DNA sequence: GTGGTCTAGACCACT
DNA sequence: GTGGTCTAGACCACG
């Protein structure tokens, strides 16, 4: 069953995003071999060319590398993965902050709210509204 | 031009989400009249019944109220809107935290990262990678 | 626009019920002239024969009487109307009690509940739930 | 055989009313499984969507709950059912009182009449008119 | 015109 | 099979 994609951002970027998350989260380990382009494309429900482009771009960024005939592997460079992790975090953080500001929250407030949700003084254990 | 929707969450919930954001952000002012169900539905590219359901649900939550034949209005209750704002913030915060944790960040780290992005040491342009 | 009727009880009985209520409530005064059968039938959206039957039955009960050519009149006998009033009350009371018992209330409880709703110690002024 | 409905009140409300009475009266026991939406709809002679709406509303009120694929069940919360019972009683009582007042009875009289019908002097058969 | 309700028929995920 | 959602199209009362 094909994955879910947004229509307003290039498909190959969304594919990269997903693959990168899998690397960062450890779903695929450093140095691990990736499935073939065809397989990945089939799984995602996209054209192999599109998947190929995503992987090429990741190769350019040295997140994966291809071994001639032996397939494609995730980088074993832990430092590189760490940088990727922070990069993805940055994207996510900026999106979050923008979303919160569109809700009319000032940066200072946001920090305070997060502190309540995470560590600091826990509220009452169920700040969950119906949402 | 129809809006963008995810397929994995009910349409009427997504419609509610968007409308609620418009209320919270002040894009539609408290007490202001909303476009008719049919107009909103056409704008969103959904069936009027679906939009009706979204609005009915919001009515139940006292975010809007309908005036028999005169149309539908945003609540004028500022306190109610404030509560909605915090509710939406909560949803967004939890989604953010979950996303970060899937990236392998501990709650403490997240706070630190945010501090860098917002207050504390202002971004100097080097913090931004291409992303 | 025709009145509302239940399908499971004879039409003429329902017509009688309505007419009798109008007499008892004073909507039509004792001794007052009634509209013609045709008019009444048209108003109710029923066949004139059906309305005729209702009126004949009421005539038999001496609630109305017809003046040869001059039309039909409500009885001027106050005592008769008083009896009718109690009769209608009886129907209503029995229906009420039956309904309450189908809800599982014992006769004693019902009296207590009514006392709260009417006189006695008024509850808090708004025992109204959403209903 | 389709049920009987009034035309002047929404069908889904009448469906709720009937289902709620069945719960309160114990015709369906707490925790018991309900027939499927489609069955109930067929029995009532309404569109499945309409029945669905009635049940959804009852679900919102926590009178029933649905088990993904396993069907829908009456709440096992006896207290909730007790509240429903009183709510339905309240509706019925208010309707009764209004009906009696339209007949021109003062609240005090009504209490007296009920006392005769229920406790106090038991009906001797003469209190019953043909009605 | 407005909101509200109803029907008919379809598709989905779940199991 | 279940509940849940969505669309399409219709009708209504209210002003």
Determine the N-to-C terminus distance of chain A.
29 Å
Number of helices of chain A: 5
Work out the number of β strands of chain A: 2
SSE order of chain A, one letter for each helix or strand: HHHEEHH
Write the layout of secondary structure elements.
The structure is a homotetramer of 131-residue chains.
Chain A: H1 11-24, H2 37-44, H3 48-60, E1 64-67, E2 71-74, H4 78-102, H5 107-117
Antiparallel strand pairs in A: 1-2
Helix pairs in contact in A: 1-3, 1-4, 2-3
Chain B binds a DNA duplex (15 and 15 nucleotides) through residues 10-12, 36-38, 46-50, 52-53, 55-56, 66-72.
Describe this structure in words.
- Four copies of one chain form a homotetramer.
- Chain A is mainly alpha-helical.
- Chain A has five helices and two strands.
- Chain A has helices spanning 11-24, 37-44, 48-60, 78-102, 107-117; strands at 64-67, 71-74.
- In chain A, strands 1-2 form a two-stranded antiparallel sheet.
- In chain A, a hairpin with a 3-residue loop joins strand 1 and strand 2.
- In chain A, helix 1 (11-24) crosses helix 3.
- The longest helix of chain A is centred in the last third of the chain and has 25 residues, at 78-102.
- Residues 125-131 of chain A have low confidence and may be disordered.
- Chain A binds chain B through residues 4, 6-8, 21, 24-26, 83, 85, 87-94, 96-97, 99-100, 102-105, 107-108, 110-111, 113-115, 117-119, 127-131, and chain B through 4, 6-8, 21, 24-26, 85, 87-94, 96-97, 99-100, 102-105, 107-108, 110-111, 113-115, 117-119, 127-129, 131.
- The structure holds a DNA duplex (15 and 15 nucleotides).
């Amino acid at each position: 069953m094909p994955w879910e994609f947004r229509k307003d951002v290039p498909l190959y970027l969304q594919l990269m995003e997903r693959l990168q998350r899998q690397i960062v989260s450890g779903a695929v380990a450093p140095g691990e071999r990736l499935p073939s382009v065809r397989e990945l494309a089939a799984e995602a429900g996209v054209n192999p060319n599109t998947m190929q482009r995503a992987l090429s771009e990741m190769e350019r960024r040295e997140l994966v590398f291809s071994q001639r005939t032996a397939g494609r592997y995730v980088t074993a460079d832990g430092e590189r993965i760490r940088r990727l992790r922070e990069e993805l975090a940055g994207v996510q953080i900026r999106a979050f902050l923008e979303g919160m500001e569109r809700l009319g929250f000032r940066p200072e407030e946001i920090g305070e709210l997060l502190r309540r949700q995470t560590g600091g003084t826990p509220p009452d254990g169920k700040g969950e509204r119906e949402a």
